Amino acid sequence: MAKRDFYDILGVSKDASIEEIRKAYRNLAKKYHPDVSSENNAEEKFKEVQEAYDTLGDEKKRANYDRFGHEGPFGANGGGFSGGFSDFGGFSDIFSSFFGGGTRQADPNRPIKGDDLERVITVDFMEAVLGTKKTFTLNVEETCSHCHGSGGETPSDVETCKRCHGQGFVTVEQRTILGAMRTQQTCPTCGGSGKTIKTKCHLCNGKGRVKTTKTVEVKVPAGIDNNMSLRMGGYGEGGHNGGPSGDLYLRFRVRPHKIFERRNDNIILTIPISFTQAALGDTIDVPTIYGDVTLKIPAGTQSGTTLRMRSKGVSNVNSKRKGDQLVIVKVETPTNLTKDQEEALVNFAKLDKKETPWEKFKNFFKN
Fold first, then answer.
1. What is the Cα–Cα distance from 150 to 196, expressed in whole angstroms?
2. What is the pLDDT of residues 242-296, one digit of tens each?
3. What is the per-residue pLDDT across 95-153, written as a single tens digit (0 to 9) for each?
């Protein structure tokens, strides 16, 4: 897409004075600054205005632009936008000059919540579906027990920073083409803490924090599954300046079971039954996650049939409602028959006057 004319961007004529160009730029910069503008594509428009002013606000670049346009002997970047705002102190400095003389720095001694932590916990299948307790250790940073976070060996060793007077920042004034700009920077003397230490704490060496190992016991709820998370409030890193501790997020990994398979809150189990059990029906004890439960096999059950055992699945971790156990029946064909078994099956075949499945299959193609 071709670039717009720089004069059109700033809304000035080609014979406009440098003061008219500067005034137009100030007005448009206020209008499109991304921190305050609600217009669509404000940041792109702000960059466009900045690029136009960067060229037209400089006599040599403007003369080159008037003669050659965007594609002058210096290329499209001859007077173009460099991607930064170093000449004007950056976005925040421009914003500061227009809207109140600097970004307010936060109180360096305000209470701050500690960082959150994440830990991956691996549990067995049965532990996940039935619930369990797990104990593990966790390395965290906490407020030093000796100096209580001040960093000084004694309370009198902690003094208010003389350079920033405890604010943690200093104000720097710069003069630019837009006028005087005031910005706030982290105090180089105290590093933003607002205080200096004469004698450092022997336990934390002035940091105000020490590493410690915690033993954590967590109750894993029944029904937990892969990638589910559990939040433990206050088990994260210790807070700063009396702030609360962060939280601990446990993410679960569940080892697969050799027999049971889980699908959402249902348990899938494939069981083998004999030819006679399938044909005549039977009552058998089937394993579930809660122990053996009696299941009736209806007479004439086909291989691949699914039988439902209600409420023998996993308890939902939120609603506590239990799923079902779905039992898939696999009919095994007998092998290594004895002579008596062979004779019994031959007699059965003679007595069965119905069309066999194979005969039905062949007759389908004949018809």
1. 10
2. 888 899 999 999 999 999 999 999 999 999 999 889 999 999 999 999 999 999 9
3. 444 444 444 556 667 788 888 999 999 999 999 999 999 999 999 989 898 998 888 99
What is the β-pairing status of strands 291-297 and 282-288? antiparallel
Is-contact 323 316, C-beta < 8 A? yes
Nearest of 30, 32, 76 to residue 54 by alpha carbon = 76
CA distance 195 to 187: 10
Using the CB atoms, write b or e for 186-221: b if 16+ within 10 Å. ebeebebbbbbbeebbeebebebbbeeeeeeebebe
Report how far residue 302's alpha carbon sits from residue 298's, in angstroms, rounded to the nearest whole number: 10
Q: Is 146 helix (H, G, I), strand (E, B) or coil?
A: coil
Neighbour-count burial of 111, counting CB atoms closer than 10 A to its CB (0-12 exposed, 13-18 middle, 19+ buried): exposed
Question: What's the rounded Cα separation, in Å, for the pair 150 and 326?
Answer: 62
Q: How distant is the alpha carbon of residue 51 from its chain centre?
A: 37
User: What residues contact 133, with CB distance under 8 A and at least 6 apart?
Assistant: 217, 218, 219, 220
Distance CA 33, CA 90 (A): 12
Query: In which element (H, E) is residue 266 found?
Result: strand 266-274
Using alpha carbons, select from 108, 90, 111 the residue that is nearest to residue 34.
90
Question: 122 and 210 in contact (C-beta within 8 Å)?
Answer: no
Residue 67 φ/ψ region, left for φ over 0, alpha for ψ in the -120 to 50 degree band, beta for the rest:
alpha
Q: Crossing angle, helix 18-32 and helix 90-98, to 10 degrees?
A: 100
Q: In whole angstroms, give the CA distance from residue 253 to residue 2.
A: 54
* Domains by residue range for the chain, with CATH: 6-84 (1.10.287.110), 117-254 (2.10.230.10), 261-338 (2.60.260.20)
Per the confidence metrics, is the pTM higher than 0.85? no
Instruction: Tell me which amino acid residue 218 is.
Output: V
